[in-house]
Structure formats: C-alpha cells, structure tokens
Design a protein that fits this description.
By secondary structure, the protein is an alpha/beta fold. It folds into three domains: 6-190, no CATH class; 211-420, no CATH class; 441-556, no CATH class. Helix content is 57%, strand content 9%. The protein contains 25 helices and ten strands. A hairpin with an 8-residue loop joins strand 3 and strand 4. Helix 2 (80-95) packs antiparallel against helix 3 (100-111). The longest helix has 28 residues, at 307-334. The N and C termini lie far apart (72 Å).
C-alpha cells in the first residue's frame, strides 16, 4: 500500500507491498525488557477490554521503488523502536502457528524472508535482525558485543517465553489483533526538512525524548530552518558515531564492572564541562543536562540570523562532541588491554568528576604519562578525604581543549590542586586516623601487599580487623585502653582477607586467626600470621604496622 501524507491506519496493513529501512544515522535499538513487557501488557489489556490500542505516531520518508521492484521503501524518521519491537513480536507469534502453509504465508506477508526483510536496520544490526528472526537458536549470546543486538535478542527471548503459554487460538487472536486492531498515526513526509520540523514539534509537546535525541533534533531544526539544510548530513553522520560510542561505552561498562551510574546525561554533561569555549556566555561548571540543553538551544537561537556564525558553532560542536564520544568509548575499551589502566580504572575506580580530564588527556595522548599523578589525586582527595572538587577539574578539562598545554604545565596544575586540598601533612593526618570505613582502604592495602591480584580476587576481598571490631576477649591485655573504639579502625589494625575465610574467623583474638590468615592468597596477610605466631602481638605491633603503611602511602601516592 502507499501511505498518504497523514492517516490513521492499522499496523498490519502498512506491510502490504511496503518495506521499511532504519537509516544508519538513527540511534540503535534500545528498548529494554521493561518496555517490551509493557507493550505485551498493553495488548493483553486491550484484548481483555475488547478495545483497539493506539501505539503512537510514526513518521516516514517515502523512497520510490527502484528498477522493476513494486515495493515502496519507506525510511523511518521517528518510531523505529516501536515498529521494530512489534515486528519481532509478530514473528514470534507467527512461528507458533502449527499449520506450515499458513505460517509461511503470514511470514511472507508481514515479515519477508531471510535477506529480504520488510523491516531492515541498515548496517550490522540488519544482519543481526535477519539471524534473530530466522536462525535464532544458533546465536551465541556471549558473542554479542553490541548493546542494540543484546536488546533485540532480549525482546525475542521475552516474547518467546510469554507466547509459549498461549494456546493455538490465543496465538491467532493476538496476530489478528496486531494486524487489525493496533492503530497508528502515520506521517509520510516528502523531505528531511519536513520531518525535522515535525519531530521538533512533537518534542516541544512534551514527549519524553532522551537528551541525545533532543540535542540532535534541535541542531537539525536550526540547520533546516536557518542554514538551508546544509549541515543535516553532517549532523546525521556525527550522531551516528555519538550513538554508537555511547552504546559501546555501556557494553564495556558492564563487561568491566565500572561507571555504574553512567547514562546519556553523563556523557552529554561531561563533554560540556570540557568545552567552555563553545558556550562563552552561559558556561558554568554546575549546569545540569537540561540547563546545558537550554544553553545549546539559546546559542543557536542567538546566532540564527548570523548564518556563518551559526554554521561555525554547530560544526565545531558536532566535531568536538563526536571526537569526545569516540575517544571516551575507545578509552573504556582500552582499559581491558592496557596494563597501566587496570588498577586506577577498575580497582580504584576514578570518580566521575575526573572523566572530562581523563578523556581529554586520552585524546591528546597524554593520559599514560599523567596517570600516576591522577591516581594519587583520586586516592588523596576524592577517596580518602571524601570531597568532590569539581570547579578546578572542569576548568582544567576546558583548558586542555582550548590550549595546547605541555605535560609539565598539566603536572604543575595537578600538583597545585593536590596541595590545595590534601598536601602531605593532611594526607598523613587522614591516614593516621580511624579510616576503616573509607572505601580507599582496600585499594591502599592491596597496593601495600604488592600482590598482582586478579580483579575477581580483588573484588572478593574484605577489610579484616586484626583485633576484632566486637572482640570476645579483653583488649586491655593487649595494650589497648579505653580508646579502643578509635584504635581498632586505624589502618595498622586492618588487613585484607577473602570473604570466605573472613566469615569463619568471627571475633577471635589474633592468635586464633593464624590458620585463616595462612590460607589467604594475600602475601601481607600470610606474613601477618607469621608475626602473630611469634607471640606477644599487641598494640605496639599495630602502631608499628600503621607507621609502615602510612610511610608507604606517602611514597606510593606522591604528587611531586
């Protein structure tokens, strides 16, 4: 069928004689199990209430048939998440039809064939969707490294599980419902300009778009309305890279177990904090994502009657944001393979505030040289002291973007920053206090023991109190006085121990922990067992151990 400029239609009818492609510049498939289950539930409730279900607005750009083909091909402008999910669901249901001829007819009519789908994302996701729909059982889930493909796999798996419980009649009922009773408002636009205007209008009416979609949309709008569409292709290509980079970051975040709170807003804001030169009148280091988006929109609005300046701003913003995103993704990937990255990124885990600086240094091939200094700052300022200075670091990240700073200039700034917040005297004072609950203690002790620990072993380690937190013995006989509540949490009384071993030691005195300590893989803990075995292990021994660890830290995490 041919879709007119705008019409309300049944979902099943649009696939009659039509094919749909998802352009490579669109963001990849991103519906999670939450959204797929919600769609299923909407259909179930509509069936129960005997009502049609409106799935929303979809917009397309019509591409005329090529050669002898009779199929009209529509480029999906907006709505690809919903239409892809429904396409997968329809295939799952059709697979459950027992009559092979009817099943084949339905697949041909609504799904197409392998290599010739009626809905096809361009690029690698298109190849994966073919395999997902026609060769699902041969997919190795562990080999999938694209976030979009994991989500498509999850959608197919979820719908398959839900459909398994249905009878033949219930399967047919749902296929007919999707085909004939899912209502969709279609817009068939004739140009990209028209689609951009419509998309922006939809956005302004309050539909919940994510920050990267909104950013792309507003740039497309100003390019279309004020630059005669001259930057539309550049915007599409740049955001294809940005979307892919963000997806790659999420995949590697999960593999490496870092960046737990990272989201679209994070990468969007971190780029902004390191690109002050692009927003000279509105930039501050405390703006949130929505304010930053408003600043971007205001910048475009201020320049809309100055096409040359508007073109320059959008071009520079696109180029820098793309480069930042691609480098961010590559840095996260490199963590697995570059040995020097392992400990600070995976074991210590840099605070999010440092990432604008880390990424900019990586872009300039300066990160490896400065990593030990940044690691020390993370230990001293962000972890041990527990503060989160942002102004200085965001200023530095923008300086790195605006000026070609030398390694020595950057070092000087970082040293000054550390001296400002945690100089050696302050560092020693913090280390000498009761810090058992501080999250950096585990990292400090792991460095002190000098074991080359596997990440799985490291994450399984716990902080062990040599003299117990709740002792079942008289601590005064070991030289402790009434200030034991303070003394027990100082670093000299702390060691590392595997969780499984630690559980069995309870609140025993040190002499009764020797066997447990000797079974540890941690060299320092086994050595500690030897010291206790000698006898007379008491408070002076703990004090001496504390002094050794503090001296080690002053040298290991030095900043000059």
């Amino acid at each position: 069928m041919s879709i007119s400029k705008s019409q309300t239609e049944k979902f099943g009818q649009i696939f009659s004689g039509s094919r749909f492609i998802i352009p490579s510049y669109q963001r990849k498939y991103s519906w999670t199990e939450k959204e797929t289950k919600a769609l299923w539930q909407d259909i179930e409730e509509s069936l129960k209430d005997n009502m049609n279900h409106f799935v929303g607005t979809l917009s397309f750009k019509e591409n005329k048939p090529e050669g002898l083909s009779t199929d009209i091909v529509y480029e999906i402008i907006d709505g690809q998440q919903r239409i892809t999910t429904l396409f997968i669901l329809l295939k799952v249901l059709i697979e459950k039809i027992p009559d092979q001829k009817i099943q084949n007819d339905q697949i041909t009519a609504f799904i197409g064939s392998k290599g010739n789908l009626r809905l096809l994302p361009l690029g690698e996701d298109g190849e994966f969707l073919n395999t997902l729909l026609f060769d699902f059982n041969n997919i190795n889930l562990n080999a999938i490294d694209k976030r979009s493909q994991k989500y498509m796999y999850s959608a197919k798996s979820t719908f398959t599980a839900l459909a398994n419980a249905l009878s033949r009649e219930e399967i047919e009922e749902r296929i007919i419902f999707i085909r004939d009773r899912l209502d969709v408002l279609f817009f068939n636009v004739t140009s990209q300009a028209q689609s951009v205007k419509m998309f922006s209008i939809i956005n302004d009416r309050g539909l919940p778009l994510r920050i990267l979609d909104k950013t792309k949309s507003i740039l497309m709008l100003y390019s279309t309305l004020h630059l005669m569409e001259s930057l539309n292709d550049s915007i599409n290509l740049a955001f294809e890279k940005i979307f892919d980079s963000y997806d790659d970051i999420l995949v590697w975040r999960d593999k490496l177990g870092i960046l737990g709170r990272l989201e679209e807003n994070t990468i969007f804001t971190q780029h902004y904090y390191s690109s002050r030169k692009l927003f000279p009148d509105t930039w501050t280091n405390r703006d949130g994502a929505e304010t930053i988006f408003d600043n971007l929109k205001k910048r475009c609005e201020d320049l809309k009657n100055k096409p040359t300046e508007l073109n320059t701003f959008i071009t520079e913003y696109l180029s820098d944001f793309k480069a930042f995103s691609v480098s961010y993704a590559q840095l996260i990937k490199d963590i697995q393979t570059v040995p020097i990255y392992q400990k600070p990124f995976r074991y210590l885990e840099f605070t999010a505030t440092l990432y604008p600086v880390l990424v900019r240094l990586y872009m300039q091939n300066k990160l490896i040289q400065l990593l030990p200094l940044l690691e020390s700052i993370e230990v001293r300022v962000y972890k041990l002291r527990g503060t989160n200075p942002i102004a200085d670091m965001y200023w530095l990240s923008s300086q790195l973007t605006e000026n070609d700073l030398t390694i020595e200039e950057i070092k000087a700034y970082l040293i000054s920053f550390s001296e400002k917040f945690v100089n050696n005297h302050v560092f020693e004072t913090y280390l000498d206090s009761a810090i058992a609950e501080n999250r950096v203690v585990k990292y400090i002790l792991s460095e002190y023991c000098n074991n080359n620990l596997d990440i799985a072993v490291y994450k399984n380690l716990q902080i062990e109190h040599i003299f117990s937190k709740d002792p079942n013995y008289d601590v005064s006989s070991y030289g402790f006085s009434k200030d034991y509540e303070y003394e027990k949490n100082r670093i000299g009384n702390l060691s590392l121990l595997e969780e499984s071993i630690n559980k069995g030691l309870g609140n025993l005195p040190p002499v009764n922990k020797i066997t447990g300590y000797l079974s540890s893989v941690i060299t320092d803990t086994r050595n500690l067992a030897g010291e206790i075995q000698k006898g007379n292990y008491c408070k002076p021994c703990v004090d001496n151990r504390r002094k050794k660890i503090v001296d080690f830290c002053i040298d290991r995490f030095k900043v000059n």
